[in-house]
Amino acid sequence: MPEYNDSMVVDYDYEERVRGIYRSPTLESSVPVEASAPLEASVPVEQTYTAGSALYEQSRPAPIEASVPVDSAALRGHEQTRPVAPATRPAYDYRQEPALYNMNEQDHQTIRLYEERLVANKHRRKAGEVSIGKHVETETARVAVPIERERVVIQRTNPTQVGTAVTPGAADFREGEVARVEVYEETADVHKEAFVREQVNIRKEVERETVTAEDKIRREELDVDAQGRSIQDNRPGSSPRDRR
Fold this sequence. Notes:
The chain is mostly loops.
């Protein structure tokens, strides 16, 4: 087993070294390890699966680029290498290697239980249209106007001096004497004028109500035949208890 102490950080490389102990020790001959290229301490040599298998492709680490030597004459005979960028490690999932964890189809199976739910949505549609306008109606109206007319009334009476002689010269007999009296009358002057009779305000109001709908929904439940043996119920949200 690889060395471990409390000051170490368990990373992907360390986990791969531990998993490599339990993997089949099949090394690839097509990937030689160059002795001249120094390996970083954080990049261990891993045991892999057979080339071409799916598990090999998933567990295979990113290849290490070969070091590129720089002109030795320019650097006084010392060989220099270009630094290699760290490769991005994929996330490991234990389901990639079921045989490594003694998993098989009989011991580990997944059953999904489905249920139906009522999902309520609403949409807006045009329910109708209200047209508001105005028109002119004609009717006959009557109005009463009191008027006045003047007329001349001629009334003959007997004076109290009837039969009394007048003073000589007081009587003036003349022809053509006329008394003029002006006579007036009122006539009805009827015309039409427009007045504001009523004002109509138009607006919309929203009425709210709750519509209730019901329907039958289905839900799948798990049937367990333990043949008399107790089983533990570890459903989310429930306390563990034994069921038969």
